[in-house]
Fold these 2 entries.
Entry 1:
Amino acid sequence: MSDYTVRKLTADEWDEVNFPRPKENEFDRVVERAISRRGFLGGVLAFGSGAAAMSAGLLKPEKAQAQQATRFAFTPIPAATDSVVHVPEGYSWQRLVSWGDPLFSGIDAFDSAIGGAAADSDKVFGENTDGMELFVIGGKQVIAVNHEYTNRKTNLPQTADGVPRDGQDVLKLQNLQGIAVFEIVENDTGWTVVLDSPFNRRITQNTPMQFSGPATGHDLLKTAADADGVESLGTFNNCGSGKTPWGTYLTCEENFNGYFGATEEPELTEQIADGYKRYGISTEGWGYDYHKWDPRFDTSKNPNEPHRAGWIVEIDPSNPKSTPVKRTALGRFKHENAETVLAPDGRVVVYMGDDERGEFLYKFVSKDAYAPGADTSTLLDEGQLYVARFHDDMTGEWVSLTPDTTGMSEAEIAIFSRIAASKVGATTMDRPEWVAVNPISVEAYCALTNNSRRGVKPNAGGDWTPVAGPNPREANKYGQIVRWRPSGDDHASETFEWDLYVMAGNPTVHEGDYAGSANINEGNLFNSPDGMAIDSTGLIWIQTDGDDSDEGDFAGNGNNQMLAGDPVTGRIERFLTGPKGAEVTGLCWSADRRTMFVGVQHPDAPFPDGEGRLPRSSIIAIKRDDNLPVG
Ligand code: FEO
Ligand code: CA
Ligand code: CA
C-alpha cells in the first residue's frame, strides 16, 4: 500500500505492477460490452478513489494514508486443504463453543456417540452456526447467533441415513436450529460461555413469536392453530444477521421452503399455488420429513403454514423473556442478512439480499426517524420496501413496491415480495448474499455468490437473467461483489451509482471472463463470496461458501476461507482458512475489538474433536498475539 501512495501511481498502475494481467482478453471485451461508460475495472478503482476522497471528511488525507499503510496488519496465508483452521503468524485462535456445548449447568457434556442428548437439544449450542452479533448489555458481552440448518446424518447418528425415525428425532432437529443467545467472558485461559447467565436463551423452531407490520392478521397467515394470523411458532433456516441501533438482533429466515412437505396432494388456491411455485415449496420437502410427524409442516393440512416463514425476526437479547417479532414490512423471501444503517435524517435503512438464483436485492426505509431513547417498537413496521434495478451505465434505482406499482395490497407485497418485485422489473441477481455497509464511507457492498443459471435460465418467476450489469458472466461459477454509493451520500436515497469491487475467478486456469478481475491473483484465489462485514477501519472481511475441491476451475482455492479487502485499492488478501468441508460464516468483534469471533459451519471430521468423533460447527475466537485490535 505504501508503494502505491508514495509513488503516486494511479490505482490502475499499481494493480498492473503488482498483479500483471494478460493483454486484452475476452473478459475485457465482455466487460466492455456490459459496461459502456467507464468499464468496471476502471470503475472498481475509480470508485475506490472516490471513497478515499469521501472518507477524507472523516480522516485527513495523511491519516488516511497512514491507515492504508497498516490496512493489512497480517502476512497473507496460503490456501489450505487440511482439517484445521489457519490464521496468519502473530495471530492465534481458540474454540469458543461448539454444537452440543451446554448453555446451562446440569446438562450433559456433548456425547459424540449419540450426537448430543435429544432431551437437552434446546439447552445447548445448536448446529450450523451462522450470522452473529455481539451486544454489550449492562457491561456484559452477549452473543446472539443463528443455527441455520442441521446435518441430519451427523445430528442423528443412530439413524442409517439421517432420516428422522419418529417425532422425537424431528423435535431434536427442530431444537438444534434457531438462535442461541449467551453471555461470554474472557479470563486467563481465553473466552468462555458463561453457563446459566440470565441472558442465556435458546430460540427454536417451536418458540412462540408475534407478527407485526402489514401482513399481520392477513388471511394468508391464518392457520388452524392461529385463526387470527398474528402469532407464529418458531423461526427457520436462520442465515445471516443484523443489529439495530437500538440494540436488538435481526435474524434472517432463508431456505424455509425445505421444511415443508405434503402427505397428500394439497388443494391450493391459485394465489397460494403461485406462491409455492415462486418460493419452491414442494410436496417432498428437502428431506427433513417434519411433515410426516408434525402436521404443522404438512401443506395438505396447513397450506398457510409456509407463509409464516421467510421473514426477518427481531429479538431483544437483553430480555430472555421477550417474544420475538416477525417484521413483515421487511418482506418475505429467502433472506440472507439485514444490514442496518441510519440515513442522515435518522430513518432506518435495512439492506437485504434474497439468496436464490435470479432473485433480487431489497431495502427497507423506515417512515420515522430513530432517536436514542425513543420508542422503537414500530420503526421496522412502517416504511417503504424497495427493490434494486441496476442499469448498464453504472447507475441504479430503488423501485418502491406499493399497491400502485404492483397492483397488490400491502399485505400481499409483504407475503409475496418476489412476485411484487417481478412486477416492477427488478434486476435478477447472481444470488445476493450478505450486504455490508462501510462505516467510514457512504457505500454498501453485496456478495453475489454465484449463479449457474445466469444467461441460461429464467428465475422461478420467469424473469430472464441477462448477462449484464453487475451480473456480467454467463453460468457464473465464481461470484462477485457489487458495490453502490447512494446519491447524496444518503442510504435512503432512491438512486445510486454502482461498480464491481471484485470478480472472483481463477487466472491460473482461465483466460477471459473466468480469470476474474485484476485484484484476483494466484495468492488470493477464492470462489463464492458469502458472509461479509466491514470493520471499524473500513476493511472488508469476506467469507466464502464455495467449491472446496481444489480441483479444475477451483484449483488453488483450497478450503473455504476468510479474506480481507481494501475498499480503496481493491487489494484482497487471505487471512484465514477453514477446515475441510466447512463454510466460514458469521463474524463479530468483542467490545474492545481485540477479539474477532468467526463461525465454522458444517466442517468434516475430524474438526474440531479429532478422529472418530463427530464433526461440530463451532465459533472460534481470534486474537493478535500482541493483543492489539483486529478490526
Ligand atoms: Fe445461508 Fe445464502 O446463505
Ligand atoms: Ca450465507
Ligand atoms: Ca452461500
Entry 2:
Amino acid sequence: MTPVAVPTLEDLSIAEKEKKPDVVENEEEDGEDDDDVEGDETPGAGDAKKKKKKKKSKKKKSAALTQSEPPRVGLSKIFKNGVYPAGQEVEYKNDTTSRITSAEMREKERLAQDDPSTRYQNIRKAGEVHRQVRAYAQKNIKPGMKMVDIADMIENGTRALVEENGFDSGIGFPTGLSVNEVAAHYTPNPGDTKVLNNGDVMKVDFGVHVNGRIVDSAFTLNFGDPAWDKLLEAVKDATNTGISEAGIDVRLCDVGEAIQEVMESYEVEVNGKTYPVKSISNLNGHSIAPYSIHGGVGEKPGKSVPIVKQHGSSIDTQKMEEGEYFAIETFGSTGKGRVDEQGACSHYALSQHAPERYTGHHQSAKTLLASIRRNFGSLPFCRRYLEHVGEKNYLLALNTLVKENIVLDYPPLVDPQPGAMTAQFEHTILLRPTCKEVVSRGDDY
Ligand code: HZT
Ligand code: MN
Ligand code: MN
C-alpha cells in the first residue's frame, strides 16, 4: 500500500475554515507493519500492546495519516480529533432573512450540532469516505475489468475507510454500475462474468452510512466516443441546477422544472446524428432519513424530487423543509427519456411492512428473513452481500420473500430505445438552518 496525498479541502468549507480537521502526515515507510499511533484512543488498544510496539520502534510518532492505495486507512486514523470536513456550504437563494448570520438560526444549528443524534460528523465522515473511494475508482476503473472486480474495489474501500461495524457504519446500498441504456440499479450478481467494454458509458452510484446517515452520490464515466461527454455535461449541469434551486420552503415541482429546463437545453452529436438530451421522466431524487434511502419513516412516505415538470399532481404542494436530507440526482437520455424495469434483479430491501417474524410455510424463507433483518435491517442489499454474510442457496427463499411482498425487488432501470445512452450525476445535500451543505461535493463533481 502506497501512501498518497489526502485531497485538499480548501474549497469545501466556508464557515468552518478555522476548525479545519487535522490531517496528519504519513510516517516514512520503514518496512514495518505497524499502524499504532501516539495518543491512539482506539478502544482495545491496550497498554501492553502499546509498549511492545513502542519498543519495536521507539521514535515512532504519528502513524499514517494519509490515505493508502488502494484505500484501506480508516478515516478515524486520518481525522484524529473526530472532526470531518464539511461539504460545500452554499447560501440559500433568496435568503432575505439572512439565515447565515441570523442569531436565531445559528443558535438552532449549535443545538443541532451538540445533539449527538443529529451531529453532522456522521454525514460528513460518510461524505469524505465517498470522496476518497471514488477518487481511487476514477483513477483505476478501466475497460477490460470484470464488473465484480469494480464493485469489489469500491466496496472494499468503503468498508475499510468507514470502519464498517454492524449497523454503526458501512455500505449504504449496493454499488450501481449501470452501463449505456441501463440508467440505474444494475450491480453484478454472484457468477456474473460481465466485463466493462471500450465504448461503454457507466453510472457509478454508491452509498456510505455512518450511524444511519447515508451519503448517496453518483457520477458517470465515459469510455466511449468523446462526443458523449456533452451528455455527461448536460446531466452534471442539470444536477447542479437542482442543488442550486433546492432550499427550505422550496416546492419540489419547481426543482423538477428547473432541472428539465437545463437538461433539455442540450443536444449531443455522435457519428453525424444529433440527439436531444431528455430528462428521464420516471426517475427522480428523494429525501433520505436515518437508515432509509428513500426517506420514508414508518407509515410516512419520503419525498420525491422530480426531474421533469409535473402535470397537475399533488407533488406541487410538497416543499423541502429545514433539517431534511435530499439526494439530488438527475438522469439524461438520448433515447425515449423514460425507463422500464428490465433484466435480472440484483437490488433488494426489506419492505417496511415486513413482519417481525416469518409466519409463512417456507422454512428457508424464515431463516433468510432473519438473516436479512440481522445483517441489513432497512438498508438495501444485493445478492453478493447475502454471500458476503455467508448465505448459500438463498435464491428460492429470496424469491419467496419477494412474492410475499416481505422483500421488495428493485430491477435494473433501462431506457427501452435501442442504442439509447444514459448518464447520471447525484449529490446528497443537507438543509441546515443557516445554509445548504452539499455533503458529497468534491473537486471532481
Ligand atoms: C432503492 C434501492 C436501492 C432508491 C434511488 C437511488 C440509487 O430509484 C424514491 C425515489 C438503492 C437505492 C434506492 F437498492 N432509489 N438512488 N441511488 N438508487 S429509487 C427511488 O428506488 S425511491 C427514487
Ligand atoms: Mn444513488
Ligand atoms: Mn439516490
